[in-house]
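Continued from yesterday's entry.
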Amino acid sequence: MSLIKTKYPRYLNLRQMIYDAAEKFEDKAYLKYIKGDKSVGEITFRRFSELMENLGTYFAVPENSCGRIAILAENRYEWLVVYTAALAAGKVVIPLDKELDFAQAEKFIELAEADTIVYSADFAEKVVKMAEAGIHSKNIRHYINLDSLDSVTDKRYTTYKRCITFGEEKLASGSFSFKKLRSNSSRVCAIIFTSGTTGTSKGVMLTEDNIMSCIHASANMVNISENDVLLSVLPYHHTYETCCGLLTPICIGITVCINNNLKYFTKNVQLFRPTAIVLVPLFVATMAKKIESEIKKTNKETIVKGGVFITKNINRIGIDVKRYVFASIHKFLGGRLKTIVCGGAALDPQYIKRFEEFGIYISQGYGITECSPLVSVVPWKKVKYASVGIPIPGSTVKIMAEDEKGNEYDLPTGETGEICIKGPQVMAGYYKNPEATAEAFNKEGFFKSGDYGYMDEDGYLFITGRKKNIIIFDNGKNVYPEEIEEYLYRLDIVKECVVVAREIEGVSMITAVIFPDYELFKDKSEEQIKEAFKTEVAKINRSLPSFKQVHHVEIKKTEFEKTSSKKIIRYKV
């Protein structure tokens, strides 16, 4: 039995996929969003196709000279219209992180040679100042505000609505046909600047072929269908959310509900009542801890334990009553949630098992921006809890190492080394950075991910840690901090943590830097908090070999600095 279903086709380009979805799903809601008056707005598959075509026409006509289109805005449906229109028109899109320091965003705009910038009202003042200064914006010919223009009279400025109207009129006149546009799907269509959690940020060049291969894999390897309703939470500039949370639903016919702000997550879960959510591990862990906290607070530990025992036994005869037994937990999550797609990093398997006990199934995958982003997905027909899955169709994953002379070689099954990937999803390279591109690929053309892991006899991939994070001691012992962090995150009192090596009195020590859940330490002194952690860390150390044990604990008073995709920026710890 094949572990991968092949229900959905591999489209050659994004434009055709959107047109086909419009024809098949017509007036079914593709996007739902919160409007300014707090009511729910709706964009059908048909209407989305029209918007893509109208704006794509604006980008495509020669008179407008749009070639490289940067997007700087919060999560909203217009963001996706711009992204798809740019790709469908054969242009290059440059999604920017809205959380970036604006000076950094300016540098990325200049580096990527953007000639068009699409922005929301939140960034209008800064964009105008950038244009006036002219340092990083000398190539920009079009400034497109997603909202409105106040007192700006410069002809380079326009609005999203005007661009849509321009395209509409152009198409209605018959002087231009968007459907007849020809573009090479192997061209670079997106430049994505990596988050730089280790202190660097590079422009990843993705082709349309890269993106379409990931959409095909995502659609066919995750157990979701056109009957699902997905809540979109993660930032849109992130390739993982773009591919899995926004574009794959077009291929399948899924309704996507836009979470307009993280602080409204719980409220929007209740409003949209999703059946599926795309998340990262930190988000899943936070949700799990909130559920466990509520169970303890209401003194229902014994009831829940009994419920798990009963439902497991009933499930053996093919009857699943988890949603009824754990109705209160499901109500907290909107009442209909059945699937969580989790990626970005390896997830502690205890969370996968725990959610499964409640009747919510986590589909875990592994990806990296340079792979558009999918590398592997756990097939829902055969789950291995600690694994991040099998390679996506058409790709090959190898575990490799180097000898003392720098010669690379393949490692056998079960041995840990660097995860290397070759396949249709692997990037074209780093923009204007041939040195970094050359370093990223080995002699066989495999992309060197920088992540360490191993593969088992069934071809399943397991992540052990990030190459740059490995702690190497003088005695040759290697420690993967992520492994120790996994133990720490299981503690209710830990909200966030990072494990590093610190020089203390001339000795390199494994150090746990912890941001506690201060809600659980009300009226406790700093010393009492530290002692509580020393006690818990001592318990963890008993299950670890001596060279992996934590010998020093640092308590943080504030959260760690993170990227917009909720990854801790480790080099700043």
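--- second protein ---
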Amino acid sequence: MATVHAVVTDDEVEQALAAVTNSLPGGGEERPGQLQMALAVSRAIGEARHLIVQAGTGTGKSLAYLVPAVLSGQKVVVATATKALQDQLAEKDLPQVKAALGAPFTFAVLKGRSNYICRQRVAEVGSGGIQPELTGQGGRESGEVEVEVEVAAEGDDRVDHGEAPEGLVEEVQSLLAWSGTTPSGDRGHLPFEPSAKAWGMVSVGPRECPGAFNCPSGSRCFAEAARERAAASDVVVVNTHLYGAHLASGRAVLPEHDVVVFDETHELEEVMTSSLGVEVTPGRFRALALAARPLVDEREADLVASLLATGEQLGSLLADRVGTRVLHHDAEPPVDDSTLAELLGRAADATGRVTDALRRGGVQRSLLAEGGADPDRLSRKTRAITAASHLTDDLHRFVSPHDGEVAWVDGTRRNVRLRLSPIDVGPVLSAALWGEITAVMTSATVPPSLVERVGLEEFETDELDVGSPFDYRAHALLYVARHLPDRRAPEAEAALHEELALLIAAAGGRTLALFTSRRATEEAAEALAADLPYAVWQQGDLPKGRLLEEFARDETSCLFATLGFWQGVDIPGRALSLVTLDRLPFPRPDDPLLQARRARAGGRAFSLVDLPRAATLLAQGSGRLIRTSEDRGVVAVLDSRLATASYRGVLLGALPPMRRTVERGEVEAFLREALAG
């Protein structure tokens, strides 16, 4: 990263930012933090220095990095942690910048391959009929469908029988019809949400796609067209998982670029941990067996049967180890993983033999009466070989893991996954990214010690906190229920429920009650819902989007939810006047990945592993309250440790600068005044 580019002047940045904000509805508003951030981003890009910016809610951070990115004239990739932010950038912010500046820059959105309908799969389903696909003659199992490069939970409901699930045929027919009219093939542009089974029949993932040159439909591929648009664009918006896949592939997924912006950078470490690792599920064996069965010579069918049996054995063995670390020799007490290691070796051998059989087999059946090759059959065969090769490679990663990697069993007994990830992503990012690309990292909540955790210590990196334009001291109150008993005490749950009921009454409903576990969520809802004079929604009652719509629509309603709602919830106005958090969100002590990180950190484990995560999540949960300059309300932490523990300063330092109290009477008075206004 030695190249230094010409720096755009501060005046140019300020004028361009003003032009964009003045074009917003109502003429925008003055945000000093936004300008401060934009100037810092411009200097970082021009001087090829990394930059970390904490930009509180309301800063307008998207425009603060987009404007200098466009002015720089460099190729920029923006990686977001959420689809909502990706859509906001592509559909609102970037068009706004382009229109206001009159700048001739181009931009594109690029998603993971499985987010685009596959023309070759459509051709195969259309020519061969839907029923053979439903009986296991092609496609993936529902659990092997990948969206945004995140592997969906695998189901046990295999599609290996002769009858189609109700409505599936009609759903696939709708997808086939849509494929002929869509200009993009992007799943996100569908007028309906397809089931995993239906989408899996008309899409391919990166582990099975043979590439455009090896596919009969490669010249018309939607995913390849999206990649071409991205390569020709000045700004490319991607999902952070896809950027991780880009690094894991040796930087072969995304076009070459000069700058990367990681928005919602508090997710960066965990996303990279996932993306730079591998995952093996029993479903991958089943899907490969279903794909290979009609493609190998009949005399080698036993190889496919052996592959399927090996996958089932692996699933059974892993089901008893869910939530535990595996394949490590320094466990206390020692764990005998020889059976698992031996089974993984046999699995790798089985997939290798099936790969060879696929290359050899079925030649006679691949010829048409006219004597030419059947392109659909050859395409299926190439995809199966690609999937088998990827599975073999991933299994070898588990057979011979590196010292800096941790393997563990994730999921549930029904949906089990064997995962392997780097314990520390810093060395990988340091070697593959920080020395090559200028990075801007920003979030409303930047985790403590981020430089150290992502391997930036040896690189020139500036850090900046531009605050928030909101008047937190006047508009928000932080209440810590210091009088509540330790959560381990027998009376703790009843006391928490009583406290929560009193707070909800003071707020007149209007409460987002956040919990650190599903059990605590359900127990609180069961204990309080019948006696509260307000509608009480519980996570799972409706899909998340619909649930938030209902919560916002009924101003006095309450929503009880767990960790999935601690971030990404934006409900401005009086409908959300109280956010409660049942306890400090420290990670589970038995999490296998974090156990490995704690062991590596030694005596600094709590400060380097547990405390930063708790601080970040606490700040994210508290951040659900104030979303606009007009919002008023209370954040109530029902965990006395925030008022008494020696580490409370780190946690409080991560929160917005709200007034604080330990007296419930002050909370009731504050809410009366806020709601009266």
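Residues 375-399 form the longest helix (25 residues). Residues 142-164, 363-371 have pLDDT under 50 and may be disordered. Will compare against the first tomorrow.
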